[in-house]
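Justification of computing resources. Each target in the renewal requires a structure prediction run like the one illustrated here; the chain below, 98 residues long, is used simply to show the kind of job we budget for.
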Amino acid sequence: MSLAQFAFSSMFLLSLSGMVFHRIHLLSVLLCMEGMMLSLYLGFSLWTLHVESLNFSASSLLLLAFSACEASAGLALLVATARTHGSDHVRALNLLQC
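Resulting structure tokens:
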């Protein structure tokens, strides 16, 4: 395993463990998900450069666009949750009350 692969896989696993162990606030969960998406984007971009194929070059930009859409939708849900429930604690959210 090269150093770049180790760096991106450890970046993904650290973001995943942060999401699992520190899910008190919705904002911290969203930030960990954004870190996971950025590590996937960087890994996919380097993989595209390693393969040296132009067929996969647009795929990393598509992943980055989906990541930006996910971040904006997550922040909109964070604002809506803070307005309706009064806080962004994940424990306060109950899907049966919505």
